[in-house]
Amino acid sequence: MPLVQWPDFYFARHGETDWNFERRYQGSRDIPLNVRGQKQADSNGVLLRYLLEEEGVDPASLNWFASPLGRARETMERMRAAFDTPLPDVHYDQRLVEISFGNLEGRLHAEIAREMAVAAPGERDASYWHFRPERGETYDDVAKRLLDFAEALTHNSVIVAHGGVMRVLRHLVEGAERAEVVNWDPPQGVIAHFTEGHMRLHAAQKTW
Hints:
- The chain is built from seven helices and six strands, in the order E-H-H-E-H-E-H-H-E-H-H-E-E.
- By secondary structure, it is of the alpha/beta class.
- The chain has one domain (9-203): Phosphoglycerate mutase-like (Rossmann fold, 3-Layer(aba) Sandwich), CATH 3.40.50.1240.
């Protein structure tokens, strides 16, 4: 992978969906937030506003990006509602869409692990980085489109996208091992601040 100079950015995974709760492969399917996910998104907006105030960052000075899938759009809209000042428009970028799990989408993690011997999160090795479901993508495919997206990331930003994207960013920005990130369960209801090659997680006060 080529070296990239990543600016500081704040990243939020979208709030919970019913498929997240049920532990289903979701991928590029456009599944909406559930009530808990909406509350997570609202809390993330308050948290982001607080973090920016504490760090003396003007939210209007940031670029705002999101995946065009509905669950990311709604999360971004709910987060921005926490701000009482005008904000720049959101750039909805196809390169931020979740990894496609192809024919696995909609099926339970446990069901696939049992029937197809496809390792569930927590049981994968580094080779999973190159695992391609039928009609789906590999994590390496996602890494290539995120490196392409990085060319547009020329300024400090806010990004709302997906768990798979967050996994890959940890590898690309932090240099985290592939075996680690493919087993990591990216949390919802937090803000990840990527700065100087490191990720720091900030948790919202739980009201959901």
